[in-house]
């Protein structure tokens, strides 16, 4: 069972910050073999949606209100620990993130920059492709929009 919590940057404790940055690095830098600057100065503006299993962070997203990243609200840095993906925690953390945007920011339109191989995953959550595919940090991405 995944326990979800949402925190501002200031509410994160040092252990949580370290664990979520470690998870992001494990997946985005090491597993995906992508050298990029994960610490981009945007975490301080974001809401952090954290999925805990047995007191360990295994899933995570960061949320931005409209205008802080895209014109629309947005979800980024969507990550689930490799050994936990079989449990479909990606759906759980994304559904919690969509609800947090609706509750915290009082909007329902959400834009994401999705890795192309995950289009179907995001389609099942209600996101639709917008525009053409593009490279971001050497990985094919596509813009997607959620309009309930």
Task: List the defining traits of the structure above.
7-stranded mixed beta sheet; 3 helices; 148 residues; alpha+beta; globular; Aminopeptidase
Please provide a written account of the structure.
The protein has 148 residues and is an alpha+beta fold. The model has no long low-confidence stretch (mean pLDDT 96). 28% of the residues lie in helices and 36% in strands. It has one domain: Gcn5-related N-acetyltransferase (GNAT) (Aminopeptidase, 3-Layer(aba) Sandwich), CATH 3.40.630.30.
Total of DSSP H or I helical runs spanning 4+ residues: 3
Q: So what's the overall shape?
A: globular
Tally of extended strands? 7
Ends distance: 27 Å
- Look up the CATH topology: Aminopeptidase
What's the gist of this structure?
The chain has helices spanning 14-31, 89-105, 119-124, and strands at residues 3-8, 47-53, 56-64, 73-80, 110-115, 127-136, 139-146.
Question: Which SSEs are present, and which pair or pack?
Answer:
Blueprint (H helix, E strand, L loop, with lengths): L2 E6 L5 H18 L15 E7 L2 E9 L8 E8 L8 H17 L4 E6 L3 H6 L2 E10 L2 E8 L2
Parallel strand pairs: 4-5
Antiparallel strand pairs: 1-2, 2-3, 3-4, 5-7, 6-7
């Amino acid at each position: 069972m995944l326990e979800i919590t949402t925190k501002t940057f200031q509410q994160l404790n040092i252990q949580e910050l370290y664990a979520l940055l470690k998870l992001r690095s494990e997946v985005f830098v090491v597993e995906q073999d992508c050298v990029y600057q994960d610490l981009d100065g945007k975490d301080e503006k974001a809401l952090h949606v954290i999925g805990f299993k047995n007191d360990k962070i295994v899933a995570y997203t960061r949320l931005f209100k409209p205008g802080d990243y895209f014109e629309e609200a947005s979800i980024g840095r969507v990550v689930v620990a490799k050994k936990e993906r079989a449990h479909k925690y990606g759906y759980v953390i994304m559904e919690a993130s969509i609800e947090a945007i609706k509750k915290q920011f009082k909007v329902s339109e959400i834009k994401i920059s999705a890795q192309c191989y995950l289009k179907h995953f995001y389609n099942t959550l209600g996101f639709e492709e917008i525009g053409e595919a593009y490279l971001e940090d050497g990985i094919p991405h596509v813009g997607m929009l959620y309009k309930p």
